[in-house]
Amino acid sequence: MIQIYHNPRCGKSRTCLAFIEETKQEYQIIPYLTETPDFNELKKLLEKLNLQPLQLVRTKEKVWIENYKGKTLTDDQIIAAMVEHPILIERPIVVKDGKAIIGRDPDLVASFLDQL
Which of 2, 4, 8, 10 is labelled catalytic? Predict the structure, then answer.
């Protein structure tokens, strides 16, 4: 089953969800802003994405700029910041068969879903 970490207020996330709906594949929406992954779930998600924690952070978000920008943080501290402030998590994230991508480009999402 496809999972999409979705923010309904984000245009890229809505576009990605619409594309997934068109594939007629079974999917699950994870509204990560209200059902925030915990530390371990986020760590596993990063492994599936094959990303370092900072690569998943929306560094232009006000909360990042005001609280974290310019500070030296460990990976665990960055993950904890995303758990505390889920708005920092890049979106949408598409997960299928133990792998994941950031689904901002519909063509990449199509390739990703077709490969698995």
Answer: 10
What is the token pair recorded at 28? 């699950």
Nearest to 110 by CA among 1, 10, 48, 18: 18
41: left (phi over 0), alpha (psi -120 to 50) or beta: alpha
d(CA 113, CA 109): 6
Residue 10 falls in the annotated catalytic set: yes
Residue 108 contacts residue 92 (beta carbons within 8 Å): no
Instruction: Tell me the C-alpha distance between 27 and 21, whole Å.
Output: 8
Strand partners, 28: 3
Backbone dihedral angles phi then psi of residue 2, each to the nearest 5 degrees: -85, 140
Name residue, tokens 């245009």. Answer: 11
For residues 45-64, average pLDDT:
98
Average the pLDDT over 91-113 and give the result: 95
Strands 93-96 and 99-102: antiparallel
